[in-house]
Design brief:
The complex is a heterotrimer of chains A (340), B (598) and C (295).
Chain A (H helix, E strand, L loop, with lengths): L3 H39 L7 H6 L6 H10 L6 H13 L13 H36 L4 H15 L2 H14 L21 H39 L2 H8 L4 H23 L1 H14 L5 H10 L3 H29 L1 H5 L1
Helix pairs in contact in A: 1-13, 5-6, 5-8, 5-10, 5-11, 6-8, 7-8, 7-11, 8-10, 8-11, 10-13, 11-12, 12-13
Chain B lengths: L1 H15 L14 E6 L14 H10 L4 E3 L6 E3 L2 E6 L5 E6 L12 H13 L14 E7 L2 E6 L16 H4 L21 E7 L3 E6 L12 E6 L3 H10 L4 E2 L4 H5 L7 E7 L2 E7 L21 H9 L3 H8 L4 E3 L26 H10 L20 E7 L3 H16 L3 E7 L1 H9 L6 E7 L5 H5 L23 H12 L3 H18 L2 E14 L3 E3 L17 H4 L2 E2 L7 H39 L1
Parallel strand pairs in B: 1-10, 1-11, 15-16, 15-17
Antiparallel strand pairs in B: 2-3, 4-5, 5-7, 6-7, 8-9, 9-10, 11-18, 12-18, 13-17, 13-18, 14-18, 19-20
Chain C lengths: L2 H19 L2 H23 L33 H36 L3 H15 L2 H12 L3 H12 L1 H15 L2 H8 L4 H37 L9 H10 L8 H29 L10
Helix pairs in contact in C: 2-3, 2-11, 3-4, 3-6, 3-7, 3-9, 4-7, 5-6, 6-9, 7-9, 9-10, 9-11, 10-11
The chains are: A mainly alpha (340), B alpha+beta (598), C mainly alpha (295).
Chain lengths: 340, 598, 295
């Protein structure tokens, strides 16, 4: 129910938000420009002849090599090459993979869905679990719950992702002793994946172990951040006031402390989204998950520098966009920032 | 957030409803699952270069000829018979009356189109370009295919190019950008590809119209693992039925499983050392920074004496290889294999190695390291290997130990693959490097890697040499075998080439690694290797093993059914956990809302 | 330095230690760390790099723990215990040096961003935020892949991708310090940028820097092992390369649990120790930051 008065009040806020969003978008564009420039020079650091590095010693005649140089624009001066590269990138042309002989963008397009499914699910689970547990732990620091939560998250934080993944694979996919290996050893679905619900279940079953690994590692961070945010809130005057007013403890926590603590935490979650992406590279390699992380790992292993460059660009740019979005949403949600 | 959780909860409720409608086929399909640790690079045979893709191509497409399953000699495939002109320059193939999997007849025109495409379109050369390099023209007349060559070529009958259906492929505009992801594929091999999920699997179905007759199984699945350890688990669990190209430790870990057959036979690969014996470019100018002592054949021979190949096999390959007393062609290829004997044979003998070096004037210094006869340099060599290759690391440690005994210092230099290829194949910035080659039934390709013409050009572009070798004797023998169409006589010439490589030692063969595979005998009732006598399964030449696959027949309650029912259970369990979590949050939220209303 | 300052500093350290001692987890972490570092430093007195030599391995291959080899052997018959001991040197060295590099970059840029208002500060802040957002593991992988694997490359790859959080922290701290009245007094007395930053700001941010660096070492060790696992390694025995070896040689399928568990547990223990230590330091030095998540 929106009254006229409220609408009146909201108008300047919207203007403010728009301006804020525009500033943020400008910042994001600048960041993306920096990524493009940095990528160009980073991949010019490659020792030796880039064409030969790209061709990986495959037999090529001098004519073929020259052709390849011309195709990549390497026969031109560095400034010209740079303009060429920027032009291509702005047209979403990420080049053609040497290993797969296909446009890098197509290769990415085929795999991005799997990655979004895996990281998205892991993020939802990790955020919900981490924030809930962190809020409870932070509300009563020093309690048994807090001690156990903090201990668990510190251990998980110290565990290398790949090691945890391998252990989970060996225990729950291979089966050890009385534990049956009920989870599959690879991939995102069975070859003869049934349709309908059974198909959804099939994917869910394939996702359990990779998702668990990814959750375990990122959830620890969220827990710790949320915990400290709540501890900060607990020390605030308004909580004391609320308590003095005789509000129920649970209510204060749920309606005041947690929402206020949530905002900085969620921003941090998005700031650290690159961390999840890094985790996805290892997790996908271990569980043969057919996503972007595996593609990137393949590019590193071959090495296929065009593919590496393309996936690197895409990953960083999407992380930047995600951050900007989170910033704007944060601004939209946070009453303190809005009124300021 | 609340909405999201609600949606999640709803999803989980739906998912938790027992999915009893699991497909139960009336007649169970006979399916065999092959695990591979390499993903398919391209389904377009003109572009694909990976081994796994080559294996799949062999199952989908026909070739002019294929190696015979017993002798590995060329035998008819799509070409029923062939004749050669007296000068060896004109080959005429009679193409079999058979049908593509879409019912169209196979004609010589298909083959001619395939070869002409490769000869005229650079983009189509990526996959098998060198195979048509020597072709002057290819023409078709009904079922008769005529290939005119620029120079005689005995290896014509080992042509690696799959014959493509012209009526399907001529519509492709830009072959270099075509991904060929159209299913079912139109082919002429025992199987038809029906599905490909990127980085996951390729599904092949039996081709009912295959000219040799339909394969005995219904479906073949090629399943990709990014994690080799997981693939071994997969085999033990029965997620896959066969896996090839195992390393010794994975092979050993299959021991003791009653359902698994450990397949250990001679392989098609040779592992050797490449010695920088004075690298030159194709116009005979010195290149690189090889140690001058290695130009002396006596030093190379002394090195050869200082290598305990049996020890390497035992320690580096876990005993699963054969020490090499020959050269670059492994004993699998009986017709072409050559082995040193008598006085020529070099066996591990440190005293002899020391004597050779002493006699040649390489004196040991106070530190036990020898110097050049003119005293200019110490005998300190670099050994180039790949990073992240534990086998090569071990090899290096052993060589270093033995060479130290004969007064030679060896230091290990680890290089990533592109740098390694550049330094050991183009710029010659090495002394000794690890090397090896997987040999085809016709050894011409590997023999060609030691020709003068394969050395890099003066401008520094690689030609594909594996040794920078340039030897008149070897060169004339190569030309001789190339022209010789009599298999027996050609084999004699090839053996002389191997002998030359053995005694002159631009390369020193170490061992021939075994072919290690594993398969489940509770799934696979029969599989015929190639060659039939102690041959290879996956990774062999030709589709034979996979054409002859027989599945264990089983009734409705198969292990597969069991697998998917545990799958359902696990899926439900996972769903329930997520559901419980989501429900918990929703409930807490609700109670919060209820509080508010109070 | 005058006698008075000296006494004041010593008292501060005494107070700090008394405070730190109350954090039992922090002390436990410190003890583990001290033991690990001392062991790593003393290793050359007892063993040398020959324990990592594949040829000199005396035990059976992949032998389970026994009296001869208390933690079993690897695929070449080398003692896992001795390799862990020797490998700790590489792991800790990379951890410390990468954290040091990250600290130096972070401190210089952080102080500069806080001290120089105006466009210089704005630009540095922008760059810092940009680096902060970059997926660090992915960037480190690309860097290491391009530069080739060596100890120096790995250190650079980790250091260059992990400094931004330090820089942000130091910047905030610098702003707080420079808001204090005595800085204004100094400025009035004609102190230059160099004097202000090195004499006033740096000593004040140093304690926090210590805490932040300790946490940085923890994540650098984990990153090193991850890079090694993904095939970009320093070519020296470290805990990460040992895990990679156990993976390459199929230790899991061969049932050689000691080969997989021991290096992993070492990483977890040492990283935990650094983390506990770092968190305790943070709490002692800056109660407001008591529970800041590291990384």
């Amino acid at each position: 129910m929106t009254t006229a008065v409220e609408e009146l009040e909201q108008t300047p806020v919207r203007h403010g938000l728009l301006r804020y969003a525009a500033t943020k978008a400008g910042g994001a564009l600048l960041s993306i420009a920096m990524v493009i420039v940095a990528t160009f020079f980073l991949f010019r650091l490659l020792p030796g002849d880039p064409v030969r590095a790209l061709a990986q010693g495959r037999n090529m005649t001098p004519e073929q090599l020259d052709l390849e140089r011309a195709r990549l624009g390497l026969d031109k001066s560095i400034p010209e090459q740079f303009l060429h590269f920027v032009g291509q990138t702005l047209r979403f042309d990420l080049g053609v993979s040497y290993e797969y002989k296909r446009p890098v963008l197509d290769l990415i397009g085929e795999r991005i869905g799997s990655t979004l499914l895996l990281t998205g699910t892991a993020l939802v689970v990790a955020v919900s679990l981490g924030l809930w547990q962190g809020a409870r732990a932070g509300w009563k620091p020093g309690s048994k719950f807090d001690k156990v939560s903090t201990a668990i998250s510190l251990v998980l934080w110290s565990v290398p992702t790949f090691w945890l993944g391998l252990l989970l694979l060996m225990v729950f996919a291979a089966g050890i002793g009385p534990i049956p290996g009920i989870f599959p050893t690879r991939g995102s679905s069975s070859v003869d994946k049934p349709d309908g619900f059974a198909g959804v279940l099939d994917v869910a079953q394939h996702m359990v172990l990779p998702c668990l690994t990814l959750v375990a590692v990122v959830y620890a961070q969220y827990l710790l951040v949320m915990r400290s945010s709540v501890i900060d809130e607990v020390g605030q005057d308004y909580i004391t006031t609320a308590r003095a007013k005789g509000l129920r403890d649970d209510d204060i926590r749920r309606k005041h402390a947690v929402p206020n603590a949530l905002l900085p935490t969620v921003t941090l979650v998005f700031m650290r989204i690159g961390f999840v992406v890094g985790g996805a590279v290892t997790v996908e390699a271990i569980f043969s998950w057919p996503g972007l992380g595996q593609l990137f790992y393949e590019a590193i292993r071959v090495p296929d520098f065009t593919l590496m460059q393309g996936t690197f660009l895409l990953i960083t740019v999407s992380v930047i966009l995600m951050n900007t979005l989170a910033d704007v949403v944060y601004h939209l949600l946070d009453p303190r920032v809005r009124s300021a | 957030m609340r909405k999201l959780l609600a949606v999640l909860a709803a999803l989980c409720v739906l998912a938790a409803v027992p999915g009893t409608a699991m497909a139960a086929d009336p007649a169970p399909k006979k399916v065999i699952k092959i695990g591979v640790t390499q993903a398919v690079d391209s389904m377009n045979p003109f572009l694909a270069v990976r081994l796994v893709t080559g294996s799949i191509q062999r199952m989908i497409y026909g070739f002019l000829t294929v190696p015979d399953s017993k002798t590995l000699q060329p035998s008819p495939d799509l070409a029923e018979s062939w004749t050669t002109s007296p000068d060896g320059l004109t080959w005429t193939f009679k193409i079999r009356q058979a049908k593509w999997s879409d019912g169209q007849p196979i004609t010589a025109d298909d083959a001619a189109w395939t070869f002409n495409k490769m000869m005229t379109d650079d983009a189509a050369k990526t996959g098998n370009g060198p195979a048509v390099e020597n072709f002057a023209s290819v023409t078709a007349n009904g079922q008769e295919l005529t290939i005119k060559l620029k120079a005689p070529q005995a290896s014509m009958l080992d042509n690696p190019v799959p014959i493509m259906p012209k009526h399907v492929w001529e519509k492709v505009k830009d072959i270099g950008k075509y991904d060929a992801e159209v299913y079912p594929t139109v082919g002429s091999g025992p199987y038809v590809a029906v599905e490909h999920k990127k980085d996951q699997f390729v599904r092949l179905e039996a081709n009912p119209d295959y000219w040799r007759g339909r394969p005995k199984i219904d479906e073949l699945q090629i399943i990709f693992y990014d994690n080799p350890a997981a693939s071994i688990v997969g085999l033990k669990k029965g997620d896959i039925d066969l896996i090839g190209r195992l390393n010794p430790s994975d092979f050993e870990s299959l021991k003791g499983d009653d359902n698994i057959v450990q397949w250990n036979t001679q392989g098609r690969r040779a592992t050797y050392l490449q010695v920088n014996h004075g690298a030159t470019t194709s116009d005979n100018k010195p290149i690189g920074d090889g140690h001058p002592a290695l130009k002396d054949p006596k030093v190379r021979t002394a090195l050869h004496y200082a290598i305990d190949k049996q020890k390497l096999v035992d320690e580096v390959q876990g005993g699963l290889a054969k020490p090499a007393d020959g050269s670059i062609i492994p004993p699998l290829y009986k017709d072409f294999f050559w082995e040193a004997s008598g006085a020529e044979k070099i066996t591990f003998d440190l005293a002899k190695a020391n004597k050779i070096l002493d006699d040649a004037g390489y004196k040991k210094g106070a530190d036990g390291v020898r110097t050049m006869p003119d005293g200019s340099r110490k005998l300190q060599f670099r050994f180039s290997i790949h990073t992240d290759a534990p086998v090569e690391d071990k090899l290096a440690e052993y060589l270093t130990g033995w060479f130290k005994e004969v007064g030679i210092t060896l230091t290990t230099k680890r290089l990533d693959s592109s740098k390694f290829t550049e330094e050991t194949g183009t710029t010659a910035l090495f002394d000794i490097a690890i090397s090896g080659w997987s040999v085809n039934p016709d050894p011409e390709e590997v023999l060609g890697t030691h020709l003068c013409s394969r050395r890099p050009t003066a401008s520094g572009d690689g030609g594909g040499t594996e040794s920078f070798y340039c030897d008149p004797t070897y060169e004339s023998l190569y030309l001789e075998q190339q022209k010789e169409l009599d298999r027996g006589k050609r084999a004699e010439t090839i053996k002389k080439m191997e002998e030359r490589l053995y005694t002159d030692a631009p390369v020193i063969a170490l061992y021939y690694p075994n072919d290690l595979e594993g398969y489940r005998k509770d799934r696979i009732a029969g599989i015929t290797p190639i060659p039939e006598d102690k041959g290879l399964l996956y990774g062999g030449s030709g589709y034979w093993p996979f054409y002859t696959l027989e599945a264990v027949s089983k009734d409705g309650a198969s292990a597969d059914g069991g697998g998917s029912s545990t799958g359902v259970i696990a899926g439900i369990a996972a769903g329930v956990v997520v559901l419980a979590l989501a429900g918990f949050f929703v409930l807490r939220r609700r109670s919060g809302a209820a509080d508010e209303r109070e | 330095m005058s006698n008075v300052t000296w006494v004041r500093r010593r008292r501060a350290i005494g107070r700090f230690w008394a405070d730190f001692r109350t954090h039992r987890a922090g002390v436990a972490g410190l003890v583990i760390l001290a033991v690990a570092v001392v062991l790593a430093l003393l290793a050359p007195l007892f063993i040398d790099s020959s324990v990592t030599n594949v040829v000199s391995g005396t035990g059976a291959k992949m032998a389970p723990p026994s009296l001869d080899d208390p933690l079993g052997t690897d695929e070449s018959g080398r003692s896992v215990l001795l390799m862990i001991w020797w490998g700790s040197r590489t792991s800790l060295l990379i951890g410390f040096l990468a954290a040091l590099l990250s600290m130096v970059i972070g401190t210089v840029l952080g102080i500069a961003a806080g001290h120089f208002r105006g466009w210089i500060g704005a630009v540095i802040l922008r760059v810092t935020d940009w680096f902060l957002v970059l997926p660090s593991l992915v960037t480190a992988l690309v860097l290491a892949a391009i530069l080739g694997g060596s100890t120096a490359t790995i250190i650079v790859a980790i250091g260059v991708t992990s400094w931004p959080s330090t820089a942000r922290l130091i910047r905030a701290q610098t702003l707080a310090v420079e808001a204090r009245p005595y800085i204004e007094r100094s400025l009035a007395l004609g102190a230059g940028h160099w004097h202000i930053t090195t004499r006033h700001v740096l000593p004040n941010v140093a304690p926090l820097l210590l805490a932040s660096t300790t946490l940085e070492v923890a994540s650098a060790i984990v990153t090193e092992s991850t890079l090694a696992f993904l095939g970009v390694s320093a070519n020296k025995t470290s805990w990460g390369t040992m895990l990679r070896g156990s993976y390459d040689w199929g230790a899991a399928t061969a049932g050689a649990w000691w080969y997989i568990l021991v290096p992993g547990l070492c990483i977890v223990t040492v990283v935990m120790a650094f983390t506990l230590c770092g968190r305790a330091l943070e709490t002692v030095l800056n109660p407001r930051l008591r529970t800041r998540a590291h990384a």
